[in-house]
DNA sequence: GTTTCTTCATAGGT
DNA sequence: CACCTATGAAGAAA
């Protein structure tokens, strides 16, 4: 995969580095850290117990609500309550004809200017929009900035991504090639750092509180924000060695291996990492690497035997152009040597060995890669595709825990079916006039207008924020099937797996790493009338029902600015459902029927409508609440019945979160 | 304190 | 997709 060269797990030429490079001799170092005999007892406070996979999540703490605001109503009957900042109504300036050349020739000069001057060059529009987005309460104190925990890490990551999605949405709505900010992730990261919304900002050796092995990231900025690796591009992060008697001694504390150099990562427990520098660039030829900066720090870490965090980066299978990073735990540098790289220049090599006893992360990814290539190699496989081809992506059925051969019989259907008699509560709406695909910035597009002017999705079908209702393009829209406003109706793209859980029956998880905001699937099944007079509210459908009229715990997912208004700021995350909907997946359904309940879930639902054959139908769509590592069980909050319908219908909850309500329905 | 330098980024193009 | 290039920001070093 990484094209590593075979057999390079040892030093082929152990010649003295000081002969090749003019460096201070390192052998004067005394191995004072750590204490002898203490090398094999790393603190595994973050390792999930009793599970080969990252085990889910600590309680999710939503963003702090505005001071004194009342608790959020869950059902909001006013669809236009949302007071989002109206940034999309602006139109970007046209670029100058030779804007590109001017820009590049000014590059050198601009580099030295203050950010203020650079900003002044941008259009007022972008500045206004960004200023509006920057106007939020940091909600993080000095202690939390220095040292985090699981809640803080999750909150910071979710707030970053909410902001990034919003910046990206603004970027998408601009005219093409207009002179606006690019790189939504950098802009969002910059705002977060400027406002001090970060955690674990104090550098440290070893475990980062709240960051667990197997956690995934989609931007280098995210690594900085939670203190895993505080270099925005460089692969080696280091810090001063405390108590060192050597002037300016620095040890490596984390490295990123992401394909930038010829690393050897065949063995999950051994990483042969290439030092930094020596690459050819626009103004420079390839050269020998020097024993400075990160390389020197790694050399010191070899002598000091300190723990080094390893983050591995891969091409994201679902978004070919971008990368996904996995925190793979603690390693130690075991040896180093110099060898000639492909350019013929000397490269430093560092052999890092994984400290034993840690939960698997990269090893899980390697297994998945094998299953992808040969699905029949999946351990415990019962059925290669339980959808029988109904979905474009197969869904294997596996059981690795007991002898059960599968769930009770049901018919697989990919979408929700309304009975003929169903009384439509929504008028069919007019389609758009967009010829090929609806454009995010087109304020004349009726589909955009129905969505309140904001295009609901950014690239790759990522949801920007929750809405009272999302209106996708329907069959009367002339735009093509691949219009970006048809995310939920084109079927799921995630490589799911239905598996037998240890204590909750069958469950759902994914082979793919999932970004926050990713559309997962809809809740398929038959729309039914309320069943009266039977045990529990669902009667014979019990356990396989979705109700839109249950009480769902409110949570904050969107980026929230102070200017959005105190009183109604949460209203945008309540729903506007014209009339309650009950879907049963008892007899027929899709993968959603296997999703279990959790009181701190990683998935949420969102109502969506689009029209088919001149009738508008409501769909229940599921989206990822946060980044979800592969093989992590997918769960959503089942909610509670509006009245205490039947206490005997409740079940003991096994979600295990500290926010667990004890029961679910 | 300020500026320059280095860096296993990204996104969008061909 | 394998490569190209424009844009770009953090932190260390100067």
UniProtKB/TrEMBL annotation:
Domain SET: 494-639
Record domain Pre-SET: where: 430-491
Stretches assigned to the YDG domain: 206-354
Biased composition (Basic residues): 105-118
Subcellular location: Chromosome, Centromere; Nucleus
Domain Post-SET residue range list: 649-665
Pfam family, one: SET
Record's keyword terms, sorted: Centromere, Chromatin regulator, Chromosome, Methyltransferase, Nucleus, S-adenosyl-L-methionine, Transferase
Residues covered by region (Disordered): 1-20, 31-118
Main location: nucleus
Polar residues bias spans: 94-104
PANTHER family: HISTONE-LYSINE N-METHYLTRANSFERASE SETMAR, HISTONE-LYSINE N-METHYLTRANSFERASE, H3 LYSINE-9 SPECIFIC SUVH1
Record's protein name: Uncharacterized protein
């Amino acid at each position: 995969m990484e094209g590593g060269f075979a057999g390079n797990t040892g030093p082929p030429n152990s010649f003295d580095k000081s002969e090749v490079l003019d460096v201070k001799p390192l052998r004067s170092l005394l191995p004072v850290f750590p204490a002898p005999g203490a090398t094999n007892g790393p603190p595994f406070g973050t390792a999930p117990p009793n599970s080969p996979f990252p085990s889910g999540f600590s309680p999710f703490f939503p963003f702090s609500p505005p001071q004194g605001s009342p608790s959020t109503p869950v059902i909001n009957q006013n669809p236009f309550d949302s007071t989002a900042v109206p940034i999309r109504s602006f139109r970007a300036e046209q670029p100058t004809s030779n804007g590109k050349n001017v820009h590049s020739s000014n590059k050198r000069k601009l580099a030295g200017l203050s950010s203020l001057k650079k900003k002044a060059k941008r259009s007022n529009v972008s500045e206004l929009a960004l200023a509006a987005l920057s106007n939020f309460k940091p909600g993080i104190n000095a202690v939390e900035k220095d040292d985090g925990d699981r809640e803080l890490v999750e909150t910071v990551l979710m707030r970053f991504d909410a902001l990034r999605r919003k910046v990206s949405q603004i970027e998408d709505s601009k005219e093409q090639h207009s002179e606006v900010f690019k790189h939504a992730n950098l802009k969002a990261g910059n705002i977060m750092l400027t406002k001090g919304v970060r955690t674990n900002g104090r550098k440290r050796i070893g475990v980062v509180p709240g960051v667990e092995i197997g956690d995934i990231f989609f931007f280098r900025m995210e690594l900085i924000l939670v203190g895993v690796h505080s270099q925005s591009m460089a692969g080696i992060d280091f810090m001063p060695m405390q108590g060192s008697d050597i002037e300016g001694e620095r040890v490596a504390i984390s490295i990123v291996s992401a394909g930038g150099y010829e690393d050897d990562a065949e063995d999950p427990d051994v990483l042969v990492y290439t030092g930094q520098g020596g690459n050819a660039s626009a103004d420079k030829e390839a050269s020998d690497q020097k024993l400075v900066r990160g390389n020197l720090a790694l050399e010191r870490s070899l002598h000091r035997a300190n723990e080094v965090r390893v983050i591995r980066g891969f091409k994201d299978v679902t978004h070919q152009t971008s990368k996904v990073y996995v925190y793979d735990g603690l390693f130690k540098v075991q040896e180093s040597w110099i060898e000639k790289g492909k350019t013929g220049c000397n490269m430093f090599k560092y052999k890092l060995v994984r400290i034993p006893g840690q939960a698997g992360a990269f090893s899980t990814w390697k297994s998945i890669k094998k299953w992808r290539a040969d699905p029949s190699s999946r351990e415990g496989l019962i059925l290669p595709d339980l959808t029988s081809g109904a979905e474009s992506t197969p869904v294997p059925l596996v059981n690795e825990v007991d002898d059960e051969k599968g769930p009770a019989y049901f018919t697989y259907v990919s979408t929700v079916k309304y009975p003929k008699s169903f009384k439509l509560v929504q008028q069919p709406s007019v389609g758009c006039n967009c010829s090929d695909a609806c454009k995010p910035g087109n304020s004349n597009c009726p589909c955009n207008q129905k969505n309140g002017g904001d295009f609901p999705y950014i690239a790759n079908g990522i949801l920007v924020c929750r809405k009272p209702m999302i209106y996708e393009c329907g069959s009367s829209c002339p735009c093509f099937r691949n219009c970006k406003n048809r995310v939920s109706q084109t079927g799921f793209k995630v490589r799911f797996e239905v598996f037998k859980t240890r204590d909750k029956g069958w469950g759902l998880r994914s082979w793919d790493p999932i970004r926050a905001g990713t559309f997962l699937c809809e809740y398929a099944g038959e729309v039914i009338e309320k069943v009266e007079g039977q045990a529990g509210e669902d009667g014979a459908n019990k356990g396989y029902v979705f109700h839109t009229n249950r009480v769902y715990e409110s949570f904050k997912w969107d980026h929230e600015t102070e200017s959005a208004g105190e009183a109604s700021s949460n209203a945008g995350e309540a729903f506007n459902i014209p009339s309650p909907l009950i879907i049963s997946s008892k007899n027929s359904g899709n993968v959603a029927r296997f999703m279990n309940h959790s009181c701190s879930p990683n998935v949420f639902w969102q109502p969506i409508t689009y029209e088919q054959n001149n009738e508008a139908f409501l769909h229940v769509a599921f989206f990822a609440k946060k980044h979800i590592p592969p093989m992590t069980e997918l769960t959503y909050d089942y909610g509670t019945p509006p009245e205490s319908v039947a206490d005997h219908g409740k079940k003991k909850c096994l979600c295990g979160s500290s926010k667990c309500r004890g029961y679910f329905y």
